[in-house]
Amino acid sequence: MLDIHWIRQNYERVQTVADQKGIAVSVAELLTWDEKKRNLLQETEKLRHARNKLSEEIGILVRTGGHKEAEPLKRNVKDLGSRLAETEPQLAEAQRQFDQLMLCIPNVVSPDTPVGRSDADNIEIRRNGTPPAFAFEPKDHVALGELHRMIDIPRGVKTAGTRNYFLRGPGALLHRAVQQLAVDMLLSRGFTLMEVPLLVRSDALTHTGYFPLGQDQVFRIADEDKWLVGTSEVPLVSYYSHEVVDVREPLMLAAVSSCFRSEVGSAGKDVHGLYRVHQFSKVEQVIVCEAELERSEPLLEAITGNAEELLQLLELPYRVMAVCTGDMSQKTYKQYDIETWMPSRQAYGETHSSSHLLDFQARRSNIRYRDSGGKLRYCHTLNNTAVASPRILIPLLENHQAEDGSIRIPPALRPYMNGLERLLPPSEE
Question: Whole-structure pTM over 0.85, yes or no?
Answer without folding.
Answer: yes
